[in-house]
Amino acid sequence: xxxxxxxxxxxxxxxxxxxxxxxxxxxxxxxxxxxxxxxxxxxxxxxxxxxxxxxxxxxxxxxxxxxxxxxxxxxxxxxxxxxxxxxxxxxxxxxxxxxxxxxxxxxxxxxxxxxxxxxxxxxxxxxxxxxxxxxxxxxxxxxxxxxxxxxxxxxxxxxxxxxxxxxxxxxxxxxxxxxxxxxxxxxxxxxxxxxxxxxxxxxxxxxxxxxxxxxxxxxxxxxxxxxxxxxxxxxxxxxxxxxxxxxxxxxxxxxxxxxxxxxxxxxxxxxxxxxxxxxxxxxxxxxxxxxxxxxxxxxxxxxxxxxxxxxxxxxxxxxxxxxx
Length: 324
Ligand code: TXA
Ligand code: MG
Hints:
Elements: E1 8-11, H1 14-25, E2 30-32, E3 39-43, H2 47-57, E4 66-68, H3 72-78, H4 83-92, E5 97-102, H5 111-114, E6 119-123, H6 128-137, E7 141-142, H7 157-164, E8 170-173, E9 184-187, E10 194-197, H8 203-210, E11 215-216, E12 240-242, E13 253-256, E14 267-269, H9 276-292, E15 297-300, H10 309-320
Parallel strand pairs: 1-8, 2-8, 4-6, 5-9, 10-11, 12-15, 13-14, 13-15
Antiparallel strand pairs: 2-3, 3-7, 5-6, 9-10
Helix pairs in contact: 1-6
The structure holds threonylcarbamoyladenylate and magnesium ion (MG).
């Protein structure tokens, strides 16, 4: 038996970023902040490193990974852009948008990381630490969210170590993530771009740039998913959730939004002002905190289904789904 790796927690300064780039080059696993959620990076071309990444997350190996890259030039070496992809990249990169594109023949991402698909999910994160790490490493990286499979995504370094301590080599601590929900995923494989996952970039902004509505993605089948991470209970906390709750009941914790009713149980407010951007940034940390309070039932107030509300409601619906 090999010893478990010690997980180093490093400040996201120049020395920490250099150490993380070296770690990736040596086939290690390094978690780093992006503006959406923390990612768990591995050298995309190193099949063994990718295999260790799946093992560390406890992720089913059929689930393909996102390849973050530093800029559009690097993205072009990985994926093949059509006109819609060009327009979206020009408008929203760097930022919380992932594009699914046909892969370049020599894209540098191992087949294991692509789960054998001939498409690849690419993202240019805006976070300065992610940018510096990707530039410092120099080659393609793969980075799913830095949580155990099935847990909510991490929006702080402490969330990452709570889930993955002893299973990965290092964590760069860059403070809390500003967006707080994962990137919006748009497929540019078919005739019309399709929304595969609502996320940190609102659908409305994308449709404005495209000049037409996003196509609806085919509903992923459990055994042949389009975005295989989108299984129904993927974001499950331990407590069960009651959505669109009017008044909280006795014995429930309350996840509030806007003006909250007075409640004797544990209460956290996603945004007392009713701001969806603030609510997205708080979503996963508040879910974790209510879970950690020992609450077995969480009542969640209604979140408006517009802008970032679409992504928030998507994650809440998954968190509320029956656990497998
Ligand atoms: O904000 C984010 O996107 C974060 C940060 C770290 O970049 N990453 C993230 O990755 O959320 P992950 O692995 O937790 O979710 C990636 C999603 C999964 O649902 C996966 O199935 C889907 O992207 N995906 C990856 N490649 C795909 C492909 N070729 N076609 C369709 N879906 C794909
Ligand atoms: Mg994830």
